[in-house]
Design a protein that fits this description.
181 residues; Rossmann fold; 4-stranded mixed β-sheet; 9 strands
């Protein structure tokens, strides 16, 4: 494999999507891996664009064959990342960046330990609390999201690197340097 897999995780609201998006937009060496699901396609979705859609029987076969680098069930539906789809990009010489929930990133790390796992978060929990307060309906929601962020931080000890998201441009530079390194 010539490419490398980078797995980004962190608390929601930390700015990961913006940072990763700017890095992907600035590079030609990033391959796209579409996530897989066993749920029904919604109106307007395109197979292979939003997700690769599979019947439950096919999904179970993929799991049994070891093709799932990580998978989870959410709201009665299955979602995951196909090892075959990731390896296709890596063997083609492309780097791959996946943004996953921390628990899913840990699962992927167990199944593909050569992946470079990066945890992104603000440098101070007070910053994250401020982000949550801007969008939360009430203080209870803020507290729940903060507890979830604390749990994710504890789980993230497997990560190879931490990048603080206070300055998105600086964070993108750090991610680019890791990809180039």
């Amino acid at each position: 494999m010539n490419g490398r897999l980078f797995v980004i995780s962190g608390p929601s609201g930390a700015g990961m999507d913006e940072i990763v998006g700017s890095v992907i937009d600035s590079r030609s060496d990033i391959g796209r891996v579409v996530p897989v699901t066993a749920r029904k396609m919604k109106a307007g979705e395109v197979n292979g664009e939003n997700f690769w859609f599979f019947e439950l029987e096919q999904w179970e076969e993929m799991k049994a064959s070891g093709d799932m680098l990580e998978c989870t069930e959410f709201a009665g539906n299955d979602y995951g990342t196909s090892k075959r789809l990731v390896e296709e990009q890596l063997y083609a010489g492309k780097n791959v960046i996946l943004v996953l929930e921390t628990e899913r990133a840990a699962m992927l790390n167990r199944n593909m330990p050569e992946a470079v796992c990066i945890y992104m978060e603000p440098s101070d929990p007070v910053i994250l609390r401020g982000i949550f307060e801007k969008t939360a309906r009430n203080s209870i929601e803020v507290d729940v999201r903060m507890r979830h962020a604390d749990e994710q931080r504890r789980i993230s000890l497997f990560c190879d690197k931490r990048i603080f998201t206070d300055d998105p441009d600086q964070a993108a530079e750090e991610l680019n340097a890791l990809i180039d390194g």
